[in-house]
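DM from R.C. (forwarded with permission)

"hey, sorry to bug you on a friday — could you get me a structure for this? deadline for the figure draft is monday and I only need the backbone to look sensible"
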Amino acid sequence: MAFTQELNNLNIKNNLDYLSYLALNKYKDKILLIDNISEENLLIIFEKLVQNLIFNKNKILIVSQDSLNTLKDNRIIKLLNGKVINLTEDIDFKNYLKEQILSLPELTGKTYISKVDVISRKIERKIDIILKLIKLLRNKDENNLSLIEKYNITYKKLSKYDYLYNYYKIFRIKKPFMDYSYEELKNAKERIINSEIIDKYLRYRRYIDNSMFKVLQNEINFYVYKEALLRLKELNKRENLKIPLINSKYTKDFLDNYFVNQNMKEEDVEVLANIVNIKYNSGMIKQKEKKSIFKFIYKKFKDTEYEKRVEEFKKIEKDIKDEYIGNLNNLNYYLNEIVFLKEILIEEEYNALIKSYIFSEDIKEKLEAYIKIINISCNIKETINYIDSLEKIELDILDYCYSSLEYKDEIKDLINNIDYLKLFFEIENTEVLNKDFLETSNKYENLIGEIENDLKLKDELMRNSLNLVWNNIIREKLQVSKLTKEKIDYDNEELYEKLFPCILTDLDSLYKIDNFQKYMSNFEKIIIFDNKLNSKYIDFIKDINLKERIILMLKDKYINYSDLIEEEIHKLNDDLKELERDYIKKYSKDRHEIFVESLSKHIAGLGYNYIRNYKIGVYKVPILINDIKLKNKIAILIDGDVTNYNDFIFIDDLYIKKELEDNNIDFYRIWTRDLWTNKERTYDKLVDFLNNKLIYNN
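My reply, with the result:
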């Protein structure tokens, strides 16, 4: 199978750490094929791999037929200073090893070597700071919104002068809608705003909040209301609605008892009449005890007078009974006419009405009021059903906005901003909890520059440490000291296999070694660097059966490895193409956020020509100012970004910076958060920067 497609946009030099990571850490169980890359880039990758392998105490075998001289003169091989053995040359291993041992410096260089670990930890700490900042800004929350997106949607930080500020103060205290996402609130808000919901809800609230309508029972059938209206209107045709009663001093006692027991029967009336008569007239039938001297004189009058009083007492009781029976009949008749209201009015209201009616008050005005109340209730029934049919989120929004406003005509405005208030609340919480991380944006460029310099320093330290590392390996394995240098057994051939980190050879020289298959097991990596994969190499790969240790670095663009098992090969070029495709996809979308649009207009207003979404390498710059008034083109970068790919962290801005430098383009970074917090101040800083870049700067 052949590959002809080359990478067009991915800068190999800027991604050497990633390539090294893939080659040495990611694919450990397959042959790694590196092909379809220019010879210059192939050698750059070769240097990086050899350097990392040898620094980490790995022995490597480098096999080549046509490129051996090129590799021998490579700077990384020359840097190893006698630690490389070329099997194609006539070498006296004994003298070669002796020379290495006798020339060992007294100092181990371990302090210098340890600087690599120190600088690595520094780089990791700085990368971690950047990662935390970028994740905080770009990672989606549980509602699928990033902090940057929230900044763009809300556009500016609220101040006490903003009309939304008073709304937000209430929102912050009440903390509503915590179970709803911004998107859910937005969609519900739009449904409310783009319909008659608000008007119907206000009518509904005026109804349910009015105490006048609270006299009615809940959930009354519409037809019950209609029937009640007919009966009430019929009753109200009368001139007055007052129960005609026989009134006497005994009437109130009857009415009090009737109000308690409206199911009173005639036998109850008889008992009540007797009780009331006794209450008021018991004195008539009481005997008064006379003094003894008068007993005889009045005795003959006593019985006659008493009998008259008893008769009078009984007559009064009969009159009371007759009154009560008459009133009972009247009450039962008239109350029966309004008993239907018991199904409509709440108990308290109904009892008050009955009491008024029983005690002979005119209830005409009350019934007229009920007619109006029921009429309104019938007319609003459809509205109530409509409100009851709304989704919970819509009702929650309406209830919150209604209860939070003193002036109800503002309800539409508050509803229209309810989703923004939710985002302001989320932004504030995030900023309070992560203030220190967000403030690291102020030193972002310094961090990027420091990481860039640290990476260069680390690379330099590693190169300069290669010989020190292997000098120490010689010391450790041979236990070399000043006293023992001359006593070492240089005839021990096993020493040669352990003490030289890099062997250069061609296949013919390799095959001359006795039991060369066993010899191959001494090496952690076997690099085949050549023009093409010929049959000899294929046989060699099969013979040694160490596919997990082999790296094929081939200059030919048309590699045919049909004789090898495809599943046993991983093509590094596939990773690079995939990385390139992913970066192109990531940066393919044009930036149209509201802040980018606003910034573009501002730059145009300053009189500068610019290009939107300018492509450079696999990246895309939101705004490129390419005005002749400036010394150089200036890329306007918005925020920062990182990419996690194949478990490897890319600081995108590190690579974008290199691409811009390679193209002689300056850059200026603007953070969305700064625009959101204070757009005017951010614009002023940009103007100052541009003024300093003018060709004719006075």
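R.C.: lifesaver. Residues 274 and 317 are 6 Å apart (CA to CA).
me: no worries. The radius of gyration is 50 Å.
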